[in-house]
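Good morning C.,

I know you're traveling, so I'll keep this short. The sequence:
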Amino acid sequence: MVDFLHTALIKETFLNEINLILRMDNKKLGIILIVVSLIFLVLLGVIRYNIVKAYDKEIDRYLELGQDCSPDPNTCPHELRSQAQIPILIAGALLFGVIALGLYLILFEKSQREIISTLEKQKQVQNKEEKFDILLKGLNEEEKKVIKAVKEQDGITQQTLRFRTDLHKSKLSIILDGLEKKNLIARKDKGKTKEVFIKFSL
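The tokens, ready to paste straight into the viewer:
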């Protein structure tokens, strides 16, 4: 019983943490990511421009002297210029990915509300089921059978309940009396039979 309640508490805590994460203002986070990424893209553009400019001077020196570039890729300014730009291009691609993420977070507002709503509904259903399971632990097998049938169809007639539970009329009457005394169900007259309702709230 303690383990069951402990597990239920852990599940509830986990769902609460997810809720808090999802409640963060994604729009603001998205804007921050986009602004920071754009700043870094400008800086990368400046760095790339300076690298190209520096190697262009070296290439111009070769042209002025009428010489060809060295065949060695480790000394050829064309090759060195291309190699120097690779990390910048990779960083630029990553920043575009971050910008895309920022745009997704900004547009995620509607989906976020739907996810939170679904999580809250799931949490309510889960809590109800857990409370109902705890309640069942205090009942015998026949009482469990009856209370489950009433929960599935609140307002079920005693006659239908008898067929659903496969209990004799007198036995079912005794069980319903017991459940009524425990304040778990309520019965209301309906013609020659009675309707059975769940009395407790989950």
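Safe travels,
E.
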